Amino acid sequence: MSLKWERPFRRPVDEVRAAAASVDWSKLGERALCDACLGRLFGMVGHGHTNEERGRAVRERAPVATSPCWVCEGLTSRYDALARLVAKKLEPWEHDTFLVGSKVDPEVQAREESLWSELGLAQPEALKSEVNREVGKRVCDLTGKEPSLESPDLVAVVDTSFDHVDVQVNPLFLRSRYRKLVRGIPQTRWPCNRCRGKGCAKCGGTGKMYPTSVEEIVAAEVMRESGGSGHALHGMGREDVDARMLGNGRPFVLEIKEPRKRHLDLAAARDRVNASGQVEVDALRPATRKDVVAVKSDRADKTYRVLVRFASPVDEAKLKKEMAMLETQPIAQRTPTRVVHRRADTTRYRAVKRAEVLSTDGTVAELRFTAEAGAYIKELVHGDAGRTKPSLADRLGVVCEVLELDVVGVADPG
Ligand SMILES: [Zn+2]
Ligand SMILES: [Zn+2]
């Protein structure tokens, strides 16, 4: 057993003996208690020793029989065996940290709680809590892996009634930024809207609206290293399917469910993604569930490049003047016609922080906008039949057709 559990310069058992001296042990009657269950009645008195040690100290003064234990019926003598069972169940999953939890028979819990009230005990510890700690310590000794309360890689839940262990494999999280170099790919896997993913004539049996996605391209290469039962990509906002994502890329967190391996050749995975010709990523770095929350609370400004065609020629000076006007007031945007079938029809207000003309020949212009998160840029240009006000089309009095849209910058969030 590890030395860190011991405190050699104290006599903590004296505190336990003092607490035990005030108990009327005759109330126990014929009931026997093992050392651990006897000691656990004073489990929160003092610290630095096991309940078994507490129990032996109490028994020197109290007339309590040892077996068969009325509370645990022998469970506390099976910790070594349970720990070996847990270690065997954890072994197939690569991990650095683990946590042991348990299910204890409710009748056992009821028995120990009845003792607490009958004997008037102030600082007992529950059996379940002892099982978690004692089995956890032994697993740590057997495997050399670290226990973790906050974010264990694996959680073993021991059902003490059946000596059965369930392993919950927590996801692997990686963060980076992606660039989408081609149009026509959604950010995440998009299930077929007719069959909802089962496969039908419309989707050619794939169950998907698009053959691939940024998520699938990145996840496939990571899962070649990690294995796993599934994946999710959490992006800081998303671009339209027909828009590229260029510049410094978009922050995202990739979640791999039930990974077999966690120590991966991330550089190799990145190189394979970048060889796809469709998606590029920066270095993939370890992340946590907190990073998912951070990218999902997206408030970052975005910069866009838009190629627009005017239905009739527009003078450059007028174009520049009306672009500048768009920076002067919040844009009121009713939910666009193209998405209103799946989102609530509301009005949002977003500021356009910069609106620049990069080039124009009078009929086709290349524009650049920087806007607050959540602005609808296509609608800002063409007006969406008056649902976005003001719009460039509205200001110019000319029909504007968006030929191309790219996201060229996502600001670093605060
Ligand atoms: Zn016991
Ligand atoms: Zn389908």
Q: What is the structure about, briefly put?
A:
The chain is of the alpha+beta class. It contains twelve helices and 16 strands.
What does this structure look like?
This protein is α+β, with helices and mostly antiparallel strands and 414 residues long. It has three domains: 3-169, THUMP fold, CATH 3.30.2300.10; 172-296, 2-Layer Sandwich (Alpha-Beta Plaits); 302-410, Alpha-Beta Plaits. 29% of the residues lie in helices and 25% in strands. It has twelve helices and 16 strands. It has helices at residues 13-21, 35-40, 51-59, 79-90, 106-118, 127-143, 214-226, 266-274, 289-296, 316-326, 377-382, 392-396; strands at 97-103, 146-147, 154-159, 164-169, 172-180, 230-235, 244-257, 279-281, 285-287, 302-310, 331-334, 347-350, 352-360, 364-371, 388-389, 400-410. Strands 5, 6, 7, 8, 9, 10, 13, 14 and 16 form a nine-stranded mixed β-sheet that branches. Strands 2-1-3-4 form a four-stranded mixed β-sheet. The two termini are 47 Å apart.
Defining key terms:
disordered N terminus; alpha+beta; elongated; Alpha-Beta Plaits; THUMP fold; nine-stranded mixed β-sheet
Q: How many β-strands, per DSSP?
A: 16
Low-confidence stretches: 1-8
The helix count comes to: 12
Mean pLDDT: 93
Q: Class of the largest domain in CATH?
A: Alpha Beta
Beta percentage is 15-25%
The structure class reads alpha+beta
The CATH fourth-level homologous superfamily of the largest domain: THUMP superfamily
Overall structural domain count: 3
CATH topology of the largest domain: THUMP fold
How would you sum up the global shape?
elongated
Order of helices and strands: HHHHEHHEEEEHEEHEEHEHEEEEHEHE
Ligand catalogue: zinc ion
CATH architecture of the largest domain: 2-Layer Sandwich
Question: Any idea what the radius of gyration is?
Answer: 32 Å
Largest sheet: 9 strands, mixed
- In helices, the fraction of residues equals 25-40%
Distance between the termini: 47 Å
